[in-house]
Design brief:
Bound molecules: zinc ion
Radius of gyration: 21 Å
Distance between the termini: 6 Å
Low-confidence stretches: 1-5, 322-331
Mean pLDDT: 91
Helix content: 10-25%
Number of helices: 7
CATH superfamily of the largest domain: Ribonuclease Z/Hydroxyacylglutathione hydrolase-like
CATH topology of the largest domain: Metallo-beta-lactamase, Chain A
Number of strands: 20
Shape: globular
CATH class of the largest domain: Alpha Beta
Strand content: 25-35%
CATH architecture of the largest domain: 4-Layer Sandwich
């Protein structure tokens, strides 16, 4: 085995490509770093940050002290050590995968961030990017996390909401405020529902509109009491703000975790459906196959995906967040 193209990948509250001095989704402040998307578990106030214009817009004042280098998809950025090019990840508006090409060795390293391969009406469609080394999220990287088709999930969602409205309840849909909430808002409006957004979700949705995203019909910010026939859309953790003092409320959580019976009602919701902004297990396997890597590292989720890939004969390892350092070498 030739070890000429060795590359150090370190997981320490984010991913560090040591030989290239590149931080990817560092969770604490670093001198520089790529931010894949606008979810808080991937963001820190780096001195200098590389991100897409939409991610910059969604993060708003959080990065006001950072020097931000916005990069459009497919626009290369060359540094002393590498060239970085961003590609859509389909996870939420502005979400990006980063292809990092070493100037010294030519090695192509792809970091996916969080990805969704299924169509997402509120994000640029994910692109398949071939690489030598793949660093991929494994949030749902266990075989039991296989999601049904989204159309089926949405049909069940709509029929449940209609039955709650018909029996005099105010339905509350619970989904993360950035990304999934806007996807669901689009689908609910298109299906004819009246929707009122909790204040923080309303603010994020305003930024989506600033970025040029449009919705099928009118919606409004939640004012209490809600109008007859209105559905409330709120994020987890905002129950009090959205529902306090409202009689006859029924909640529905939309999360991929709900395919697991033991987690289905963890949110305390009356019902839970598997609608996700992540790839499921099969989607992750298909993506690995499509980008034809020689080595795979999984992050942010279950180690089972890496084990499964090894069974298929791939060189794969899970970075477990314990500052594990892995020595990579390409054949
Ligand atoms: Zn995310």
């Amino acid at each position: 085995m030739e070890r000429g193209n060795a590359l150090n990948v370190i997981f320490d509250r984010g991913i560090y490509l040591a030989d290239l001095d590149a931080w990817l989704d560092g969770r604490v402040k670093r001198a520089q770093g790529f931010i894949s998307h606008a979810h808080s578990d991937h963001v820190a106030r780096h001195s200098s940050a590389v991100l897409t214009p939409a991610t910059r817009l969604l993060l708003g004042p959080l990065l006001k002290k950072s020097e931000c280098r916005t990069l459009e998809y497919h626009e290369p950025l060359t540094t002393a050590n590498y060239t970085m090019t961003l590609y859509p990840a389909g996870h939420c508006l502005g979400s990006a995968q980063a292809l990092i090409e070493s100037r010294a060795t030519g090695e192509r390293i792809l970091y996916t961030g969080d990805i969704k391969m299924r169509p997402n009406v509120m994000a640029e469609p994910a692109e398949v990017v071939s690489c030598d080394t793949l660093i991929i999220e494994s949030t749902y990287g266990r075989p039991e996390y296989r999601f049904p088709p989204e159309e089926e999930v949405l049909e069940e969602c709509f029929s449940t909401l209609r039955s709650w409205l018909n029996t005099g309840y105010t339905p509350v849909v619970v989904a993360h405020r950035t990304g999934k909430a806007q996807e669901l808002l689009h689908h609910l409006l298109k299906a004819g529902f009246e929707v009122a957004l909790e204040a923080s979700t309303w603010e994020v949705t305003q930024r989506y509109q600033e970025a040029g995203m449009t919705f099928p019909r009118h919606f409004r910010m939640l004012e209490k009491p809600p109008k007859d026939g209105e559905i409330i859309l709120r994020p987890p953790g905002r129950k009090k703000a959205a529902e306090a003092d409202l009689p006859r409320v029924r909640t529905m959580a939309l999360t991929g975790w709900s395919v697991n019976p033991s987690l289905r009602y963890r949110s305390g919701a009356a019902t839970s459906l598997p609608f996700s902004d992540h790839a499921d297990f099969d989607d992750l396997l298909s993506y690995v196959e499509a980008v034809t890597p020689q080595r795979v590292f999984t992050v942010y989720g279950f180690p089972h995906l890496a084990a499964h890939l090894r069974q298929r004969g791939l060189d794969a390892a899970h970075l477990d967040g314990q500052a594990v350092q892995k020595q990579l070498s390409l054949f």
